[in-house]
């Protein structure tokens, strides 16, 4: 004989207000005193308790006595559950307030390498001093990778640049600075210590770059100047590039954000900005997605740090 299908009992729909009133009546032992504590009328308190009792099948939660009320067995059973709900809601309220007031919550951000030389550390130090309760996680990467991480929801904010002309249409961009370029040369180079020069002055030089092709890198600037740089050495690490320059093995481009970290046996020759700066730097968030509260405060700290950097 097949078994009859039995629907599971429906879960009661219970208002947190009913539970709050229930706990107050239980504490006070009186509808009248509970109503006074809550700032309600006695009849309003009585209606909340009746609604709660109806939601749980009509079992009385209080014995009505000549003076006051007393919890029934059903009422005593309900108390710890009602307290757990009240504590959970109170905890949620505390955490939401901390998030709103930047006393808690988190910020996950990424930045490209040269932004980590001065801009990001200064901004992060100021942000942490103001909001020590916010948990901060950072990562480093190239702009395209950071944008992928941002779009996928793994980052809340990314410090990116226009190097390589990445697609930025899907992002909310907060402009931080426009960045000029320098050519790093050995300290005894004939152009060391002089004024700005056109990048074309280095058209015949050997170049040190992070990739064999200039496309999508800072050396895009050379292509815009009408020459294709000869990449003699592919060197990924910024500190290693400086070593190659100091040894006279070639020259390399240095963005302004990294200029302060150049070693003493390397000189920087300013590149003449013709028409527009070499690249712009932005703090990016995803357009249409509600940013975490900490993101706006961090953008403010980034802008302050950008304003303090040498021109």
Short description:
The chain is α/β, with parallel strands linked by helices and 311 residues long.
Describe this structure as you would to a colleague:
This protein has nine helices and twelve strands. A five-stranded mixed beta sheet has the order 4-3-5-12-6, with helices on both faces. A three-stranded antiparallel beta sheet has the order 10-7-11. Helix 1 (16-28) packs across helix 2, helix 1 (16-28) packs across helix 3 and helix 5 (119-130) crosses helix 9 (293-308). The longest helix is centred in the N-terminal third of the chain and has 28 residues, at 73-100. The model has no long low-confidence stretch (mean pLDDT 89). By secondary structure, the protein is α/β, with parallel strands linked by helices.
């Amino acid at each position: 004989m097949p078994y009859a299908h039995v629907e599971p009992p429906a879960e009661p729909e219970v208002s947190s207000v009913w539970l709050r009133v229930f706990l107050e009546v239980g504490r006070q032992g009186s509808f009248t005193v509970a109503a006074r504590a809550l700032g309600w009328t006695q009849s309003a308190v009585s209606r909340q308790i009746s609604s709660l009792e109806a939601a749980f099948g009509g079992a009385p939660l209080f014995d009505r006595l000549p003076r006051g009320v007393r919890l029934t067995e059903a009422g005593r059973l309900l108390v710890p559950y009602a307290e757990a709900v009240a504590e959970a809601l109170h905890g949620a309220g505390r955490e939401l307030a901390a998030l709103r007031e930047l006393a808690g919550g988190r910020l996950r951000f990424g930045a490209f390498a040269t932004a980590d030389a001065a801009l990001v550390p200064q901004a992060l130090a100021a942000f942490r001093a103001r909001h020590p309760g916010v948990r901060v996680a950072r990562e480093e990467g190239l702009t395209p990778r950071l944008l992928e991480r941002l779009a996928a929801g793994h980052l809340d904010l990314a410090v990116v640049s226009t190097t390589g002309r990445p697609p930025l249409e899907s992002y909310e961009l907060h402009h931080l600075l426009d960045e000029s370029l320098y050519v790093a040369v050995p300290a005894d180079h004939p152009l060391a210590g002089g004024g700005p020069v056109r990048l074309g002055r280095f058209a015949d030089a050997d170049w040190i770059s992070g990739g064999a092709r200039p496309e999508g890198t800072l050396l895009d600037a050379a292509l815009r100047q009408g020459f294709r740089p000869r990449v003699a050495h592919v060197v990924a690490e910024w500190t290693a590039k400086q070593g190659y320059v100091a040894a006279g093995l070639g020259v390399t481009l240095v963005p302004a954000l990294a200029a302060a970290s150049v070693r003493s046996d390397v000189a920087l020759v300013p590149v003449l900005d013709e028409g527009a700066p070499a690249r712009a730097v932005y703090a990016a968030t995803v357009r249409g997605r509600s940013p975490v509260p900490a993101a706006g405060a961090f953008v403010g700290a980034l802008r302050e740090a950008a304003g303090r950097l040498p021109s």
